[in-house]
Amino acid sequence: MKTNIGLLDRAIRTLLALAILPAYILGVFNASAELALISIAGILLWTGIFGFCPLYMALDVRTNRHR
Asked: Is the pTM of this model over 0.85?
């Protein structure tokens, strides 16, 4: 699994995932919306931590500088 996400992209994904967390804890949305938000946050956090996005791989997109 090669890294295909650059540092800025990883930071934005991680920050977005962490920004969703307070909305979940406070119960701002209904149950189905919370499930969707937590799923999205999980995907963003996973891709941000590991630096690999399967969608980027399928679309042949790289935001890191190493080719």
From this structure: no
